[in-house]
Fold this sequence. Notes:
Layout lengths: L3 E7 L5 E7 L3 E4 L5 E2 H4 L9 E7 L5 E7 L3 E5 L2 E2 L13 H16 L4 H20 L4 H26 L1
Amino acid sequence: MAKENNWNFNLExxxxxxxxxxKNKWISVNGGNETNCKELRDGVESNFFxxxxxxxxENGESAKLFVSTTNRVLTYQGKDVVTGEDYVAADVPxxxxxFIVLYVLSFVLIVRGWLPILVDLFAxxxxxxxxxxxxxxxGAKVGLAVLINVGAIVLHLAIAFLFV
Length: 164
């Protein structure tokens, strides 16, 4: 069975709306025609870690679907339709890029190969998710990023000793 996400909410006038995302690619509103996500992508609000899609609604307004590697959030009038909380595109702090450089350097300097690349990719994704979506303080976020980086380096060293 294909993976499908459904969001149900009401417009201002009380009209019920169901937005469906199928196979992480096709979006439909109220069971209507499916549209490829690429056609709905918002190039201004999207960034390296999160894509934003503008979904036209029947009343002429639009909902926004925020998609990252670990999360999908549909918003209507700036509010998450599930939680009702305000939601905006992830703002990637500049310090995250320093950690990305560290991941690349650790890969280049310690071990090369497909397994260390996977370790670094997952570490980058987790670091970005913590930095952009965690409700922790900046100090706590940086501390977690340091732990993730140290963990990636330890895995690199373990891979080097196991496969060399």
